[in-house]
Amino acid sequence: MEKEDLFSEGYAKAQDEQDPLRKFREYFVIPSKADLSRTKIGGRADENNKEESTYLCGNSLGLQPTLTKKYFEEYLSTWAQKGVFGHFKDVSDTHLAPWLNADADVQGDMAKIVGAKTEEVAVMNTLTANLHFLMCSFYKPTKDRHKILIEGRAFPSDHFAVESQLRFHGFDPKDSMIFLEPPSDTDSTLSTEYILSVIDKHASELALVLLPGIQYYTGQFFDMATITSHTRSKGIIAGWDLAHAAGNVPLQLHDWNVDFAAWCTYKYLNAGPGSIGGAFVHERHGQVKNVGSDERPSFEYRPRLQGWWGSQKSSRFAMANNYEPIPGAAGFQVSNTSVADSTAVRASLDVFKQTSMSDIRVKSLKITAYLEQLLDLLLKDQEATLGKKLFHIITPRNPDERGAQLSVMLEHGLLDHIMEILEHNGVVVDERRPDVVRVAPAPLYNSYQDVRNFIQVFKGACEDAVKKTKA
Ligand SMILES: Cc1ncc(COP(=O)(O)O)c(C=O)c1O
């Protein structure tokens, strides 16, 4: 394919026309350029300026499904009209479950997103909170085995969570945190071979390996199946942070034998800022056995932090202080569900339900490859016209080792100016200072034309930024 063809509007349009997921864009509210630059949310936007923005930032905050507003209105009306009855009375003209069942209502569809059995998933708390709750149950250090392996460049919240868990158990993070470090400053990816070799090196002292499914900065998709299997074969617990993986790539948490995982719903899962999180507990850890009798039950189960919402619904309101955990991940819940949040999750999952993670992945591979091709052409262009490349892609080039996101490392000093121009042109991507721009075409709502628009503006922004630094 000639470069002009790939760059042409016609090519991008033709890809959009052939896109089997194209109808999904209409299920989302795409901010207009005018909306992005307005300083008010009230009042009318400029009716003559409804041109859509180019939003490639679903790895940070996913866009709003149109269903969300409808479901929120139903939730608010139920609350207004039913008060406390909203907890248990069915309402026939809403798709939403009575609030007592709001958690169970989203469990099965969420489980499909991460490749789990329904009982293995709970929608609860938030991501870091879930990591803590799960580590409380799964991190069982002994004098000899107390170390936790994470990345040297882990997302700060994960780093802090691990540090504090170690301290709570009386260990010094300086001795008990093992870090995976990228091979060099220019290559930030971590090979599976290297990860396994570090696990091997520290195997006898490790209690837990906690890694991200997809690395937030580089966009690297780790070989979760191999790493989990290797970790577990050494008697170590395998936990995963799936913030950037859930809703982005197909996962098989059950089949991969993952011990536990946690994720958020505000990125590729489009449930809104700070929305409720997800948790996975493999079925082998969620069993509840009655070792007493029917008259005098006594339960054996994995120790965890307890609260009333993890206890069986049938006895929850008996107020008898007899804790009987719900089998599976739901038994790790502590508080009653935020119904506002689970309403947003319901809206999101009702969109996902109309397709599958494998179909989403097919488009994702294609649209991200298109972004990569255009970036590569731009690099050739820069070499020819400027005599140098102004950026390089730090995300793995192998499509199996990445999700939707490509991370672009800019020549130092260009970021501010480039981000300014992108924003001015209604192009939304995410920056990681000092030099990285993360660009993520979300297959449900992004089009090939979005990718092309980004490239057009980014090309001009790079040229402009260089002129400015020379001036
Ligand atoms: C990889 C990763 N871990 C943890 C977090 C923190 O999530 P939360 O604030 O929902 O606890 C984020 C947030 O973006 C993240 O990307």
Automatic annotation (TrEMBL):
Where found?
Cytoplasm
Reaction(s) catalysed by this chain, per the record, are: 3-hydroxy-L-kynurenine + H2O = 3-hydroxyanthranilate + L-alanine + H(+); L-kynurenine + H2O = anthranilate + L-alanine + H(+)
Q: Which cofactor does it need?
A: pyridoxal 5'-phosphate
- Which domain of life does this protein belong to? Eukaryota
Q: Which residues carry this modification: N6-(pyridoxal phosphate)lysine?
A: K267
Positions contributing to pyridoxal 5'-phosphate binding? L127, T128, F155, P156, S157, D158, D241, H244, Y266, W308, N336
**A Pfam family it matches:** Aminotran_5
List, for all copies, the residue spans of the domain called Aminotransferase class V.
Answer: 109-283
Q: What is its EC number?
A: 3.7.1.3
Main location class? cytoplasm
| Enzyme class name | hydrolase
Keywords tagged on the record: Cytoplasm, Hydrolase, Pyridine nucleotide biosynthesis, Pyridoxal phosphate
Instruction: State the pathway, as annotated in the record.
Output: Amino-acid degradation; L-kynurenine degradation; L-alanine and anthranilate from L-kynurenine: step 1/1; Cofactor biosynthesis; NAD(+) biosynthesis; quinolinate from L-kynurenine: step 2/3
Q: What PANTHER family does the database record attribute to this sequence?
A: KYNURENINASE
Q: What does this protein do?
A: Catalyzes the cleavage of L-kynurenine (L-Kyn) and L-3-hydroxykynurenine (L-3OHKyn) into anthranilic acid (AA) and 3-hydroxyanthranilic acid (3-OHAA), respectively.
Q: What is annotated about its quaternary structure and interactions?
A: Homodimer.
So what family is this one in?
Belongs to the kynureninase family.
Q: NCBIfam families from the xrefs? A: kynureninase
Q: What is this protein called?
A: Kynureninase
Q: Give the organism the record lists.
A: Zasmidium cellare
This chain is encoded by the gene named BNA5
